[in-house]
Amino acid sequence: MLADTIAAISTALGEAAISVVRVSGPQALPIAALAFKLPQNLTPRQAHLVPAVDATGASLDHGLLLHFKSPASYTGEDVIEFHGHGGVLVTQRVLDRLLACGARAAEPGEFTQRAFLNGKMDLTQAEAVMDLIHAQSTLALRAANEQLGGAIGREATAMQQEIIPVLAHIEAFIDFPDEDISPETGAALSQRIDAVLERAQKLIATSEQGRILRHGARTVISGAPNVGKSSLLNALLGFERAIVSPTAGTTRDTIEEIIQVHGIPLRLVDTAGLRESNDDIERHGIQRTERELDRADLVIEVVDASQPAATVQRLTLPDSIANRRILILNKADLGIHADWSTIVPPLGGTGGVQCIPISCLTGSGIEQLRDAIRDVIATAGPLAADHPIAINARHKAAFERAAERLLAARIALERGEAPEFIALEIREALQAVGDVIGQVDVERILDVIFSTFCIGK
Fold first, then answer.
1. pTM, whole model, 2 decimals?
2. Distance between CA 74 and CA 116 in Å, rounded?
3. Residue 385 β-bridge partners
4. Buried residues in 9-26 as b, exposed as e (16+ CB within 10 A)
5. Can you say whether the dihedral through the CA atoms of 145, 71, 98, 44 is positive or negative?
6. 252/265 Cα distance (integer angstroms)
């Protein structure tokens, strides 16, 4: 795979000021010499104004060409970048010319894959490239940059460095079968295993944070019909996304949009009003509302606070989400009925529920709602704005597997089981951690064994 040379358009398709066509591989420079009129002295990392030419020598485009010499490039290979005019046709013709000169069309993600295979980055950093591109909030952008800088990779490497000496000790006992693991040695090894377990559990705890940062906190706006749910959605978005009508049952399906609140990405879901209905379409919409409530990270319950509290239909939520509910007393411009003061305080929270009076008509209370959203997600959920690490689902599965095997090794050690069984569990834990960054260096285990225990001396 690394023997051929690949090419692709690296900027989004469409009209723009410039476009970038990238070539990477061992034949990048010879191919570029055919597709462009290169200067006699092509200085690496220096921009040169060159024409792109077709097979007859006719000009296709003029632009800046840069040569990144191996291994000091993104992929670790020779890389050519041509920054030309950003038209769809002209950019495609430059790419076609490079392909005709011997390059192969790159597969999705192949440039970053080559960077990984050539040791320019670990797997977590490769994943961070896509997270950086897809980041929809300042916190997500920061987390992606931390990961791109190797934060998760450093944690995984540190875990490897702590596991390897433990495995080396166990391997030594296997090589010397007459030597039993003494209680003192076993206790010391258990402490080391516990330290790695604690590190793994801290990383696993950030997986929910990672999901929210990457995909947004699923925030369901729910309540009875005609209480102002769609108006609230429009107020939070800043434009009219949902149809607003005094007719109950206008919203019959879920409407989903993504916004950013204090750096936190929210996946806002406006839902059909909950009520008994004989209308098949509305009933399907209500069923979807119930499904959305089951998988919500945050529920914004909207009520018409101008009506007596006893007459208002309230949501019944499971305990798992009960403390992640914000109660909106809407239509505050009409006056909040006195009944509400006997049920909830007009401001603040009760029983883990924040309560905020709002008028979607005048916009009052919207900023308080934004603050409440931040507070609820930060306290009831696992989102810590100052935490630099937020693992994804793949990392979580690997760290969970490592923690499971380490715990099994610790139990086996306490029971005095054979070193072979303990070593097997620790090897699998090491493999799981290695899966995170894409490497397991068996030679390092041997190095520790030979240098620490001086076997054969």
1. 0.69
2. 10
3. none
4. beeeeeeeeebbbbbbbe
5. positive
6. 25
